[in-house]
Write a structure and sequence with these properties.
136 residues; 46% helix; five-stranded parallel sheet; single chain; alpha/beta
Length: 136
């Protein structure tokens, strides 16, 4: 299973996701895709097997991944303080991959009913969902 972890800004959420996936022992190939080099480096340091930075790697990852994991803002053009381009949002939205989107209530995107959760709680939920997908 090819898992694309996509993150931006400092890559903290992406790093936590990569660490959680590895700690859970999920059999998958993790590709870290950062909207900037700092985010990519954080995810690679956490143990992702491959990584790339920028718009085109997001487009390729969205096409090739079985599962995409990242913040909900991946579907919203100009989110993550402008790091998500319209092409990135469209590629992720159109991807046939299963999308595990974490409801991070930032950048003026609010998910009604999702409640307020820490990054750790969101990561644990995403890793559990991925583990369930890996068992199928």
């Amino acid at each position: 299973m090819n898992v694309a972890v996509i993150d931006g800004q400092g890559g903290r959420l992406g790093r936590m996701l990569v660490e959680g996936i590895i700690a859970a022992g999920i059999d998958c190939r993790i590709t870290a895709v950062g909207t900037n080099s700092i985010a990519t480096a954080a995810m690679l340091k956490a143990g992702a097997q491959a990584g790339a930075t920028g718009e085109n790697p997001v487009l390729v990852a969205a096409r090739d991944a079985d599962v995409i994991i990242g913040p909900l803002g991946l579907l919203v053009a100009d989110s993550l303080l402008g790091e998500i381009t319209p092409a990135m949002a469209q590629a992720v939205g159109r991807s046939q991959a299963v999308k595990l989107l974490l409801p991070v209530n930032m950048c003026n995107n609010r998910v009604v009913g999702a409640g307020v959760h820490s990054f750790a709680e969101l990561v644990n939920s995403a890793v559990s969902e991925l583990a369930e997908l890996a068992r199928k």
